[in-house]
UniProtKB/TrEMBL annotation:
The keyword Transmembrane helix applies. It comes from the Bacteria. The chain crosses the membrane at residues 20-40, 60-87, 114-139, 151-172, 179-204, 224-241. The lineage of its organism: Bacteria, Bacillati, Actinomycetota, Actinomycetes, Propionibacteriales. The keyword Transmembrane helix applies. This is ABC transporter permease. Keywords: Membrane, Transmembrane, Transmembrane helix.
Length: 251
């Protein structure tokens, strides 16, 4: 397992796609949210309506309310891209055959990929929260009030939820042997989550529940509904590990 972890961490650290995606997640999301603060003082009623939480309640609370909305969509796709790349790069580079000759089992390698992905994801989630705080201070929001701390917690928790609910992309990238299969799966998860929310079933759709919980602090998202995420993620991980165990060179 240690050998697999070292190998996968090395691949991750030198991958351009990971670096670019990390920048887009951390700086992209935080810059989008902070730049919107400069449009708050507007006399345009239509623009004011679009800014929503930045005007009401405004301040740090409105800033983080917007941040969780952006993170709920952009974060999921960003994490899905890196996860898909991790599990499809051997197929794209033509190095999959070499994995059959090394003493580390393919199932162990897949597990190492997941550990590396989760570690990278947690680091980017923390970096995103820090970037949001620093840019909020730079934009003149002032000291962070105590009642905003829960919003900061929701922001960080939503990032972590987004990391784990993207795991079906790993299985799709493995079965499809393509990064596009994994990315498409992440996009499908995002779209179906939006549809479930519009139809009123979002609370019972595990992929939509984290965003609902984070965005709507007054919405009753029950612990039972949040707990449904665990079996879904566990199933995705199990399918991924089994798929890597059963990999065949002729397919």
């Amino acid at each position: 397992m240690i050998t697999g972890l070292v190998t996968e961490f090395t691949k991750l650290a030198h991958a351009t796609v990971v670096r670019v995606t990390s920048v887009l997640i951390v700086l992209g999301i935080s810059l989008i949210c902070s730049s919107m603060l400069f449009a708050v003082h507007t006399d345009d009623p239509q623009l004011a309506a679009k800014l929503g939480p930045l005007i009401d309640p405004g301040g740090w609370a409105g800033y983080f309310a917007v941040a969780v909305q952006v993170t709920g969509a952009a974060g999921l796709v960003g994490y899905g891209v890196v996860l898909s790349w991790l599990f499809s790069r051997e197929f794209a580079d033509g190095t999959i055959a070499g994995l059959f000759a090394i003493p580390v089992s393919r199932r162990t390698l897949a597990a190492a990929k997941l550990v590396v992905y989760l570690t990278w994801g947690a680091v980017t989630a923390a970096a995103l929260l820090l970037a949001l705080i620093l840019l909020g201070l730079a934009a003149g929001l002032g000291p962070i009030p105590a009642d905003v701390v829960p919003w900061m917690g929701r922001q960080f928790a939503l990032s972590l939820f987004s990391i784990v609910i993207a795991t079906p992309a790993a299985w799709a990238a493995t079965v499809g042997r393509s990064v596009l299969a994994g990315i498409a799966t992440a996009i499908v998860i995002l779209v179906t989550s939006q549809v479930s929310v519009l139809t009123g079933a979002g609370g019972w759709y595990p992929f939509a529940t984290p965003a609902l919980w984070a965005i709507h602090s007054d919405m009753a998202v029950t612990p039972l509904q949040l707990s449904l995420i665990a079996p879904v993620v566990a199933a995705a991980v199990a399918l991924t590990l089994q798929s890597w165990k059963n990999l065949q060179l002729d397919r």
